Structure formats: C-alpha cells, structure tokens
Amino acid sequence: MTAPVDLLGLFLHFLTLSLLSIGGAITTVPEMHRYLVDKTGWLSDTDFTSSIALAQAAPGPNILFVAVLGYNVAGLTGAAAAMAGIMLPSSVLTVTATRWARANREHIVLRAFSAGMMPLTLGLIIATGWLLALPFLRADEHRWSTLAMIAVTVLLTLKTRLGLVWMVLGGGVLGALGLV
Q1: Contact at 8 Å (CB) between 10 and 16?
Q2: pTM of structure
Q3: Cα–Cα distance, 82 to 69 (Å, whole number)
Q4: How many helices (H) and strands (E) does the chain have?
Q5: Counting Cβ atoms within 10 Å, is residue 37 exposed (0-12), middle (13-18) or buried (19+)?
Q6: Quick one: the chain helix, strand, coil %, rounded to 5?
Q7: 70, 78 in Cβ contact below 8 A?
C-alpha cells in the first residue's frame, strides 16, 4: 500500500525541481524518481518508467510527463499540483531572464554563463537517459538490443544532422515490432 499523498509536498518538490531543470524538466527525472519512488513510495519503479514512456510517446509538449506522474500519484489534483509546481517558477524566471538577456546579449558574464551551462545540461540529460534505460539493461532479453540502440543513437547524433524525433520514432517502431 502506498503512503498517503501530501499535495502541498508534491507541489513544493516540483516547485524546487523547476529551478533545477536546466535543459528542461526531463533533466530532473532522476530526482523525481528518488522522491516519488524511493522516498515517498507513491509510485513503483515500473509505474514511474511507464508514466514517462507514455507521456513521451504522446503528441504534445515534452513536459507532459510531469502531469502523468502527478496524475498517477493523486489523480487530477496530483497532475495539477505537479504541473503548477514545475511550471510556475521556471515560467516567471524565463520571462524575466529573457528580457534581461535580450538587453544585455553581448555582456561577457552572460556569454560565460551560457557556455558553462552546456556541459551541465548534457550531463543531466545523460543521467536521465541512463535511468530510463537501466530497467532494460538489467533484463537479459533486452540488454544487447538496448546497448545497440544507445550506440546507434550516439553515433547518429554525432555524425548526422538527423533530428532526435526521428531516432525516437525509429526506436518506437523497433520496439513495436518486438525487435528490441
């Protein structure tokens, strides 16, 4: 049985994560997993991974996975709490920072900050990908095909200008055909 849901706690946790989501909310998935699965027990590992996979497969904004996680924790109120938490601070900060950056675009501090954020964002995205791939890497029947898909994706990303959406679509087709 799962622990009772604290909607204010859910909202505040996602509010905090919003300020850490450099590169998008998907970069905070490891912390969401720690909180929703390991700490509170509101979701199982399978439910967590399935929620993200379902939301990423659906058309629409990338952020939809937060609503699906919130919904799976506490229905519509959970979805609203998680989405409000993740969207509110980042939206206010984005509007404010964009206005300031536009006015100070050539400032050396701004250029240095942008250059410094690139490796951090890349690291967070890699951590998220690893967390989502881990259940498949642990399963004997999926291990080698998952490693092959990771290798092909990295190769295509580095050597071509193929859009990531096409790689995700290709992985989905291979999965639907039962090849991975």
Answers
A1: no
A2: 0.59
A3: 8
A4: 7, 0
A5: middle
A6: 80, 0, 20
A7: yes
User: Do residues 145 and 180 lie in contact, with contact meaning Cβ atoms separated by under 8 Å?
Assistant: yes
Q: Is the separation of the CB atoms in 124 and 23 below 8 Å?
A: yes
DSSP state of 2: P
The answer to the question of residue 58 being in a domain is yes
Q: Say if 32 falls within a structural domain.
A: yes
Question: Cβ neighbours of residue 97 under 8 Å, at least 6 residues apart?
Answer: none
How many domains does the chain divide into? Answer: 1
| Full residue range of the structural domain in which residue 61 is found | 7-117
Task: Tell me whether residue 176 is in a domain.
Answer: no
Token output for 108: 């050396």
Give CA–CA dist 180/175, Å, rounded.
Answer: 5
Per-residue pLDDT of the chain (180 residues; tens, 9 = 90+): 456 899 999 999 999 999 888 778 888 999 999 999 999 999 999 999 999 988 888 888 889 999 999 999 999 999 999 999 999 987 898 899 889 888 998 899 888 988 898 898 888 888 988 888 898 899 998 899 889 998 998 899 999 999 888 888 888 888 888 877
